[in-house]
Amino acid sequence: MKAIFQAIIVLIASAGLVACGGSSSSGETGLLSLGVSDDPIHDVGKVCIAFDVVELKPAGDGPVKTYPLSGSNVNLLDFQGMNAFPLLFEQPVDAGEYVWMRLVVDADEGSNGGLGDDSESSGCIGDASYIASKDGKTTHNLFIPSGDQSGLKFSGFTVPANGSVSFTAEWDLMRSIVEPPDLHPDVILKPHVKLVDNTKVGAVRGSVSAALADLDPCEPAVYLFADNNVGEPDLWVGDSEASAIPSPVDDTDANLGLEYEIGFLLEGSYEAAFSCDGGVTFTEPAEGNPFDINVGKVAEITFQQVD
């Protein structure tokens, strides 16, 4: 399922970045940071994406700037909530306007992504993209149709002279993974990715009481909707597996249950709704809990069973 778990990202280090075609030695420069984060998906142990290069197209007739990424095969399931994997961290680039940014990944049809037993590895193995079962014993190569030609292309932005910009590419894995039977053992990756400016987002987090989370049967999840859209699956903004970040439960406090976080949210009005059945029905309350997102702030919304 989906989680947009993030408010303000602190990118801590660049993952093996080697830059070529970077900033001009004679012109003004600024700094660019780019991270990746994930909206989770059910019943999967790993979604490893092998990021290859970042390309920037300056306005005008200037050539495309290319920034290869070394050692950046990333399990997106490790980077949810308020976490992001830093592909670029304060990378010097030419200041000015850019027409687009392209994120290229190694995801070819018939490649060797994840072939073999992945159960003994805590990270991602190899240099190609793949998906693995929860026990790691079943893996499938991931490929993006025409991915090598187009990559993941995002709209333009401006890097201020002697300033900085910071973005996060957030993946909606639930909508991105396609498994047509005739392509086995390959699985198609049709990326649903949005690029957000980290200076323009907020987040929501909270808890689901043990009384709700322990209902049988229940796969606890918190869904996020634009204001007044609860119950419209095509209109949800994102959802978070409430069980992704369990907190302790003891006999002295029945309110302790499961925690959730949903981030990368633009300023505005939203409603959070709790579901046990994959978003078919919503409870406590059925109409959702309304709240507002403000830039740089984290809203707190809890779900408790009503007697």
List keywords for this structure.
307 residues, mainly beta, nine-stranded mixed sheet, four-stranded mixed sheet, 3 helices, 43% strand, globular
In short:
With 307 residues, the protein is mainly beta.
Assign a percent range to the helix content.
Answer: under 10%
Low-confidence stretches: 1-26, 244-252
Q: What share of the residues does DSSP label as strand, in percent?
A: 35-45%
Cα separation of the termini: 28 Å
Kindly provide the radius of gyration, computed on alpha-carbon positions and rounded to a whole number of angstroms.
20 Å
Q: What sort of overall outline do the alpha carbons produce when their principal axes are compared?
A: globular
Number of strands: 21
The string of secondary-structure elements, in order, is EEEEEEEEHEEHEEEEHEEEEEEE
Give the class from helix and strand content and strand pairing.
Answer: mainly beta
Mean pLDDT: 78
Please summarize the sheet with the most strands: 9 strands, mixed
Helical stretch tally: 3
